[in-house]
Structures are given as C-alpha cells and as structure tokens.
Queue: 2 jobs
Job 1
Amino acid sequence: MILVTGGAGFIGANFVLDWLAGSDEPVVNLDKLTYAGNLHNLDGLKGDARHIFVQGDIGDSALVERLLAEHRPRAIVNFAAESHVDRSIHGPEDFIHTNVVGTFRLLEAARHYWSALPATEKEAFRFLHVSTDEVYGTLAPAAPAFTEDHRVEPNSPYSASKAASDHLVRAWHHTYGLPVLTTNCSNNYGPLHFPEKLIPLMIVNALAGKGLPVYGDGMQIRDWLYVRDHCSAIRRVLEAGRLGETYNVGGWNEKPNIDIVKTICALLDELRPRADGEKYASQVIYVKDRPGHDRRYAIDARKIERELGWKPAETFDTGIRKTVQWYLDNPDWVANVQSGAYRDWVAKQYEAA
Ligand code: NAD
Ligand code: TYD
C-alpha cells in the first residue's frame, strides 16, 4: 500500500481517485482537512476498503509514525501543503508550519520507518515529494523554460516555503540515503480545483454573474497542465524515477492570464449562454496586482519525457473544455465549498475590486 498526504485536496484527491481506478493497491490518505481539504472530493470511494482516510497533520510525528508502523506502506507521496500564493501573502505562518516544518517531520518519520525495514522493502521504498515550478522564480519573456538545473529563486512566501521543503527532501537523500524523488510541476487545472485559484474562480464567478478579477495587466504567463496528466507523471516517477532526482512536469502550455479568462468566457458563451444575451467577457474587471507577482513560469519537460517516456494526454483545448463542463455539471460541489470561510476569504481578497 501507499501513504498519500493531502489526498483530500485538489491534486491529491484526483491522484487517489486515479490510483484506485487503475490499481487495487490500497491508499492510506492522511489529510488535515484545512479549508482546502474536502472529503466530498472522495465521495466516489465511499465504502471502498482500499481507501483508508485519516484526518491528521503531517507535522504530527506520533500519528505519522503510528500510521507507518501499522500500514507499512511501500511509498509516501507528499501532496500536503498550504498552496495558495495570495493566502501566503496575507498570512505566511501556516505555510512555514505545514510546508517546511510539516515536511521535515514527515521526512523524519519516513527515515525512522525506512531505516528499520528489511533489506528488500528498504530497497523498494520511495518518498515522493510533490512540488512546484514556482520555486524557480520568474522568467523574462524570451528566457528559456525552467530546467531542473535552473537556480532556485522563490519570490512568494508560498514558493519560498516549497523551495525550503524541496531542499530538506534533497538533504535527507544526500545525508541519510532516504530514497526520495521530487517533482516540480507547473500550474494545474481540472475537476475539484478549489475556487480561490484563477481557473475555477473565473468559472464560478462568471456563472454567478460576478466580476472576473484579473490582476494587473493580465499578461502574466503560467504554464497549464491538466491535473490528471500531473497524476500520471507522479505515478510514472514513482515507478521508474531515479533516486534523488528532480523531474519537472509540464505540458508546454504557456498562456497569459487574460487569454485563459477569455477562453473560459468563450466556452461558457457556448455551453451556458447568459440569459440576457451578453457575453461573459463583459464581466472582466482589472484589479490591483498581487505584490511581488511573478511575471512568467514555463516548464521544460524534456527530462521526464526522455528518461521516463511521460507525456501529457490532454491539450489545453481538450482539458479546459472538460474542466468548464465539470463545473457546469457539479453545482452541488461548488455550492458546498463556498462555505462561510470561503466567503470571508473572497471578501478579504477582493474587497477593493
Ligand atoms: P490544495 O490546497 O488543494 O490541497 C492541499 C491539501 O493538503 C488539502 O486537502 C489540505 O487539507 C491538506 N493539508 C494542508 N496542510 C496539511 C497538513 N499540515 N497535514 C496534512 N494535510 C494538510 O493543494 P493542491 O493544489 O492540491 O496542491 C497539492 C500539492 O501540489 C502541493 O504540495 C502544491 O504545492 C503542489 N503543486 C500544486 C500545483 C497547483 O497548480 N495546484 C502545481 C504544482 C505543485
Ligand atoms: P493562481 O491560480 O493563484 O496560481 P499561482 O499564483 O500559483 O500561479 O493564479 C494564477 C495566475 O492568475 C496568477 O498570475 C495570478 C492570476 N490571478 C488573477 O489574475 N486573478 C485572480 O483572482 C487570481 C486568483 C489569480
């Protein structure tokens, strides 16, 4: 079996669902259920004995050690994190607790468990750390995409905390020999994405007749990957990645934010036209930019393709259409996540918009 952390969040839940759709190997899912964790993401696994959910913190060493001793996983896949840049600007401390201290404690628990394993299990054990392209900082317009050798130059509290966790993972391999793998992926999108992030926020705001808040000039570039392609990359790295290596994951889909917003509007115009005949793009509003906003991210995904033969299955056009359709088909999921805490966040972040 494998231990997944953060498996009630956006990517983690997609990963657990895909894993159990393709394999009978059980998953222990350790998630603190912060505002971003949602057990409804895992409704499809209700009553499925292959999925064992445990509410708890990766920083709770006693709990993690107990879970490892009890379930004896062959791998840990660490998704658990505070993940939203804007929240990290308002309140960085949770990011340090979970992303830095939490990863440290998880590594220590993994090390103690792994070092006591019998030789064959010890050999086969893996600790896969899920990270982000944001650790590399920002790119000039014509600069080549991030390779794994790019300098680590994080600019936000979020990316700095993720970079710190990547360094810890690396050090636990070099110093203690822990068999680690790290993936640094570009921006994900798809089903179950919490609507504080650009793509789901634009879809739910558009449908609710609200403003579509574009930061600054909307010309910041992100490199988008459909979430299930990220999950397939993680499975592939877990299966065949070289120990101690970092693999960049991306789909060669660089787009300025304003293009993303316009694409979503056009899809909604087609799939769920506004009752008044107006275009959704009329809801776009330009708002104050994010402090320290990185201008451009782009992933060079040649290493994972060359070494492990991984390629994304979706293009941006197919992935974004599936995503918009998923939000149209799942109004109950959307209503459920738009709780009081969500409304408080939206009021705080967009009050001046
Ligand atoms: P998310 O915020 O949707 O989910 C994070 C999950 O972790 C939630 O279920 C939350 O309850 C859980 N969690 C938070 N703190 C915890 C703790 N201390 N102990 C246990 N569980 C805890 O995030 P996501 O978008 O699914 O991202 C998952 C991982 O992938 C993160 O490590 C993130 O840095 C990385 N990543 C995300 C993206 C992206 O575009 N979303 C891109 C690249 C990498
Ligand atoms: P986000 O989804 O927060 O991901 P990240 O900051 O980790 O890349 O934001 C993606 C891009 O969209 C980023 O350049 C910020 C921008 N953005 C907006 O313009 N408006 C918004 O309301 C949000 C949430 C993001």
Job 2
Amino acid sequence: MAKRELIICRDLDDLSRRAAEEFIRLAQQSARLAKRFTVALSGGSTPRSLYRLLAEPAYSERVAWRDVHFFWGDERCVPPDHPDSNYGMANAALLSKVPIPAGNVHRMAGEKEPQLAAREYENELIAFFGLGRSDWPRLDLILLGVGEDGHTASLFPENAAVENRENLVVAAYAQKLDAQRLTLTLPAINHAANVSFLIAGASKALIVSEMLKADPASSSIPAGRVAPVAGRLNCFVTQDAAARLLSLFARPNQ
Ligand code: 6PG
C-alpha cells in the first residue's frame, strides 16, 4: 500500500505554495541522486497557479532546470497552440519562462491521430526510461487533478482505459466531453515514485471523500485507483474541498 498523506491547505494559493515546495524538494533530491528529475504535469485549471509560481524567481532559481524532464499525464487531442492544450497551458505558465532545454520537454502529440500519438508517446517513454517488455516507467513525480466524476488524467469512469494493464499510454474517448484524449494508464501512474493530487474548491468535496475511501484495487472511481506500488501519494486539498472528509487520516497537516 502506498504511503499516503493528506495536506489540507487554506486555499489555492496555499496549496500552490506547498506543492511548489514539494516540487523543488523532489527536483533537488532527484538531481542530486540521479542527475535528473522526471515529472509528468497535469492539465486542468488547478495546477496553473502552481506552474506560474514555479516560474517566479523565488522558486525558479532553486531548480536546476537543465536536469528537469517534463512529461504529461494526459493531453487533449488538439494542437499545442489550441486553448485546450495541456502543453499549451504549461508552456504559457512555466516552460516559456524558465531555461528548460527544448529536448527536456516531452509533450504528447495532441495534433496527431490519437492511436498513433499514443504509440509514439509510449515508445518515447520506453526509450527514455530504457524499459524492457514488462517494465513500467518510474517517474519521480506525477501531478494529477480529479474531476467531480472521479476522473483523473484522462481516465474517465467506465472507460476501458481505466482497466488497461498492457499499455503505458492509450488514446481514450471521453464520452461526456465528446472528446478524444491521450492518457497515461493506471499502471504507468502507479509506478511513479511520487504522485501528488492537487484538488481545490468546494465542488470537489464529495469526490475527495469518496476517492480517499475507495479500494484502489477495485474502485469505480479512477482517482480512487491511484496508489503508487512503491511510492508516495500526497493529496494537496484545499479546506473547502476537504470539508466532507471523515477522519481518514490521523493527523491532517493544518
Ligand atoms: C485535464 C486533466 C484533468 C483534470 C481534472 C481536474 O486534462 O483536464 O488532466 O484530469 O486534472 O479534470 O481539473 P481542474 O483542476 O480544472 O478541476
């Protein structure tokens, strides 16, 4: 079972600051130990303020950007300059503002035919991490959000992608959004060294309480299936999003 910690934050600003400190701590630790830091970014609106914060000198000057490799947990099947692009959002908020070598930005090709883009990204992960046939990548950090329906990355409830144990990356059709997506699969997520959920807003209170009670082996809630097999799970949750939580954790960080 993953080591799991709930970090209750005053508000989105506090959440972003705490998540930024964790990012920097892991980046410095990974760069020291392995001369690189591999992180998969999340899309959506919550992480934007974290990305903007990391671009501020008080934070960005504490990261050896030449050692950082950016990946994505998921991507919308749109071009990188499309307003819905997760890469586009991260590039505007962070990547374009820090000295990250171009070769260290491993975006999912949302502009390509989804199945081809999924295979290409899977091959990129296999090559980068030097994976054998039955290996899974061990990213240093994966950032995730959760939707009110319990989706995470682009793993949506009742979607076959949630049960995929073969691939690292799949193309998934998000029925309720009528949109094609690219996403890491649960095994690819659950083999990370660190996974951090970033969850803000009263609208997430119900799903937060449900996902944290879920059985990672069988839950119908994709976010409830996230349980790093040999890593840490940190849940950065604003107070309003944590409002319905029972005392699932002994000592929530205040
Ligand atoms: C995406 C994300 C998605 C997101 C959740 C929560 O591409 O949209 O990967 O899984 O994390 O929908 O989004 P918010 O942070 O905007 O609530």
